[in-house]
Structure formats: structure tokens, C-alpha cells
Amino acid sequence: MASSLTKDSVRPGTPGSEKTFFGHPRGLATLFMTEMWERFSYYGMRALLPLYLVAPGGLHMNAGTATAIYSVYVSLVYLLALPGGWVADRFLGPRKTVAVSGLIIMLGHLCLALPVAASFFVGLGLVAIGSGLLKANISTMVGHLYNGPDDARRDGGFTLFYIGINLGAFVAPLVIGTVGENVNWHFGFALAAVGMALGLAQYLLGSRHLSAQSDVVPTPMSPAEKSATLRKGLIWLAIAAVFYGVVGFTGHFTLNWALIPLTLIGLIVPILVIARIRRDKDLDAAEKSKVSAYVWFFVAAAVFWMIYDQGGSTLSLFADGKAENSVFGWGFPVSWYQSVNPVMIMALAPVFAWLWLWLNRRGKEPSTIVKFSSGLVLVGASFFLFLAPLSIADGGHKAAAMWLVAIYFVQTVGELTLSPVGLSVTTKMAPRKYASQMMGVWFLAVTAGDSITALLSNPAVGGVNLDRTGFVALEAALAVVAGVAVWMYRKKVNRLMGDVR
Fold first, then answer.
1. What residue numbers bound the domain in which 131 lies?
2. At CA 63, angle to CA 61 and CA 66, rounded to 5?
3. How many domains does the chain have?
4. Rounded distance, CA 485 to CA 501, Å?
5. First vs last C-alpha separation in the chain
6. Same domain as 456, residue 312
7. pLDDT tens digit string along 207-257?
8. Which of 105, 113, 106 is nearest to 187 (CA)?
9. What DSSP designation does 466 have?
10. Structure confidence at residue 8 (pLDDT)
11. Is there a domain that residue 230 lies in?
């Protein structure tokens, strides 16, 4: 990476004389590496998580419970992005918040590395909290490196940053997954801690290159507000402690006492947040109309992520027992499937960026609604494709690895059709009052989708076998129907969107 830092051969003090990172502010190298290592730790641990939960040498749970835990964990990461942004806005500022989040994530992975069940779940909670704090703020800090939205380098900087995300996500299963599956589960989790430690160390060393704006607390709390917030927090903490203490001491506590409330929170909070924004009297008629249109995109995205995120749970668990995990006779760990999506993202993202521009020049670029509909239809098609390896496995044979690769490929194309468009339309349709908060609302679509999966798979609630032919076909049909419905009502949604296209 050192070779990417160059120094212009001009005298100091002139514009552009400072060291750069591929022509971008040097602080981008710090944030690129921080995010790369954080994603390395996150995706490495996530690749191992469902496999460890069902393994005889792990926690030896059934697939339904493992899927529920995995889904609740992922939903919490995205749910906690909202309070993560609030902590930076009101207490610490983005720079300090990211430093604290890195430390929390590292401690969480260390807890996962301990061969104790209680410590494992504490670790999951810490990683979710830390990831939520970091996710909400590190992208904001990338934006701070540039001179406003009109800086010509801005889009390129975010593209480089996006490469860092996917580079970490690609390498992680190959390294952490291999060690976890083939050597020792807890050594794998420990490697994730090492990855986050490296990311945190270079962040602290390179933070001097970040923008001074990243140190600013945008809307700091007054002493009175801090006292009131702390008091309310302690009251709710005491209530939870007393409630779970009574449940535990009376011998009634089970894992579902934690899972089910968290699942319900993941479903209720998104509804409450969007309803509150929609009812806000400070919004004018045009803004309320755009929020109503945004609900369509939000629900569609929740359906998409409900299916898409099963690539790390349902598909992974299927591969663990019912797939021939080898290519040309060369076997590989199940966790390696989780590297397929990021490498395809890196390969296909530039192609899609070029394609949209090429179509736009000819006046043929699909609208936002058509792109969204396509993403839903594609993720549905991926689960229709899943029916083939399921049928092979039901016949007593192991499905070829390329069936799963094909499923991940179709899902990746769907992601590139829907996810970047969703981020863009979120910023365009956000009411002025909620301009900085709407990105957190977009993340809540992931929370809602994964919470539905958790509710369905939990043996104490839905108890649905998500890798059964009937239910996979039902999910696939739901996604396709949702995509067609969004397309059929495109004129109504377009009217609600007003001047946004």
C-alpha cells in the first residue's frame, strides 16, 4: 500500500503538494484501511457464525435456532447504525466514535474467541454495537475529506472506499474461515480480533490526516440534556436487569427470552421511525408525498434483504451438509462461499456503472422504479434457482458447488441493480429536516428483512425450515410478485416522488 502514496514534485504549500492516496486526500488511505480491516473482521466472523452454531464442536444447535441467531445479529448491526449516528452527532463526533467502535469490536471478537457460551453471546452483542457505531460514521468522515458535494474527486473517493469494503469482505472468509473450520473455531474468531486490532492501530496512527470537521460534534447536548439522557438510560437498564434477573432466578430463562424481543424490536422500530417522519408537521406536502413514495422502496428493499441475507445462513447451512464443496476434485471450506459475492461486486460494479452511463447517453437508462423491480425479480429468481440443488439433495445426492455459485451470482446482479439505487433515492427523497438521518432509515430495511427471517426460523415462533422446497418457492414467488407490483404501480409512485427521478 505504501507505493500508492505519492508526492508531487512541486514546492510545499502549493495546491496538490501534499501526499495523496491515488490522487485523493491522504486521510482516505486511513479510512480505506480501517474499513477494510473492520470488514475483514466482520465478514470473517459472520462466515463462521452459522457453521459454528450448528457444529458438534461448536454450540451444536439446530438449523432454525442458528438461522434465528444469525439473522438477529445482522439485523442489530444495521439497527444500531441509527443510535451510532446519534452518538457522534450529540456526544463524541465521528472521529472519536469510530475509535471507540473499533475498540468495542475488537473486545467483542476476543469474547467470541473464548470457549465459553456466555462469553460468545456477549461477544456477538459487542460486535453488533461496535459495528453500528462505526457503520454510521466512517462514510461521513470520507465525505469530510472533500470540499463539499461539488468536489470532482468525491465520487472517485467513495469508489475507492467501496473497494476497501469488498476487499476485506473477500479475503476474510478465505483466511478466517479456513482457520476456523480446519484448525479451531475460536482461533478463527481470534483472527478477527487481530484484524480489527490492526485496523484500529493504523486508524489511530493515521487519524492526523483526517479532516478537522470529523472532530466536530454537530449538535452537542447541554449538561441538562446529558443528565436526562443518562437518567433515562439507567432506568431502562435497571428495568431490563430486574426483569431478566427474575426470569433467570426462577429458572425460566431460555435463549428465546433474548432472541424474540430483539426480533420484535427489529420489526417495530422501522415502522415507528417511518411513521414518525411521515406524521411530522414540519414537513410540507411535497416532502410528505416523497416519504409516502419512499415507503414503497423501503418495503421492497426489506423483501430483497430478507432473501439476500440468507446467503450467509440458509445457503451456508445447506452447503455444510448437502453440497459437494469442491471444484475439479479440489475441496474447500464452506465459509469460502461468502467470498463469492464481494469478488463479483468488485468485478461487476464498474460494468454496471458504465452500463447506466451508456444507456443514459442514449436516453434509455431504466428508471429508479424499474431498477428496483429488476432487483426484486432477480433475488426471487435466485431462490427459484435454489430449487434445483434442493431437488438434487432431496434425491439423496450432494449438489455441485457451481449451483451455489450461480445463486450468489444472480443475487449479486440483483444487489447491484437495487442497493446503489436505494442509497441514491434515499438521499434524493429525504425531507430537509431528516437529510442526515435517512441513510439510517435505509439501513432499517435490512433490519426489517432479517427480523422477518429470524421470526420465521425460530423454533419457538415460526419454526419454518427455510431450506425446504415449498418455502423457498414461496419466498421466490413473493419477491417476484413484489417486483411486478412495484413496476405495475410505477405511475402512482412516480407521482408521489414529485421531481425526483
1. 20-207
2. 65
3. 2
4. 19
5. 39
6. yes
7. 999 999 999 888 898 999 989 999 999 999 999 889 888 988 888 888 888
8. 113
9. T
10. 38
11. no
To the nearest whole number, what is the mean pLDDT of the chain?
A: 89
Tell me the mean pLDDT in the region 111-131: 94
pLDDT in tens, 425-468: 887 888 888 876 787 888 999 999 999 999 999 998 888 899 99
| Full DSSP string of 119-131 | HHHHHHHHHHHHH
Asked, for residue 4, whether it belongs to a domain, the answer is: no
Q: What is the pLDDT of residue 421?
A: 83
| Residue 137 C-alpha from the chain's centroid | 14
Q: Does 466 lie in the same domain as 362?
A: yes
Averaged pLDDT, 469-476: 96
Residue 155's alpha-carbon distances to 39, 144, 430, 477, in angstroms, are 21, 13, 20, 36
Q: Which three cell numbers stand for residue 268?
A: 417495530
SS3 326: strand
Is-contact 379 412, C-beta < 8 A?
no
Residues 288 and 180 placed together within one structural domain of the fold? no
Nearest to 262 by CA among 117, 74, 445, 131: 74
- Residue 5 in this model has a pLDDT that exceeds 50: no
- Whether residue 124 lies inside any domain: the answer is yes
What type of residue sits at position 339? S
Name beta bridge partners: 326: 331
User: Which residue stretches of 145-184 are H helix?
Assistant: 154-172, 178-182
Whether residues 425 and 311 fall in one domain: yes
The CATH code of the domain that includes 147 is 1.20.1250.20
> Read out DSSP for 289-306?
HHHHHHHHHHHHHHHHHH
- Same domain, yes or no: 275 and 342: yes
CA distance 287 to 284: 5
Contacts 24+ apart (CB under 8 A), 225-231: 225/90
Distance of CA 83 to the CA centre of its chain: 15
Q: HEC profile for 42-85?
A: HHHHHHHHHHHHHCCCCCCCCHHHHHHHHHHHHHHHHHCHHHHH
Q: Which of 207, 229, 255 is the last residue of a domain?
A: 207
Whole-number Å distance between alpha carbons of 259 and 458? 9
Mark which of 167, 188, 207 sits at the end of a domain: 207
- Confirm whether 445 is domain-assigned: yes
Same domain, 399 and 471: yes
Using the Cα atoms of residue 422, residue 428, residue 434 and residue 436 in order, give the sign of their dihedral.
positive
Do 356 and 466 lie in a common domain? Answer: yes
Residues 172 and 302 in one domain: no
Mean pLDDT of 332-344: 96
Going by C-beta distance under 8 Å and a sequence separation of 6 or more, which residues neighbour residue 429? Answer: 290, 291, 293, 294, 438, 497, 500
Maximum Cα–Cα distance across the chain: 74
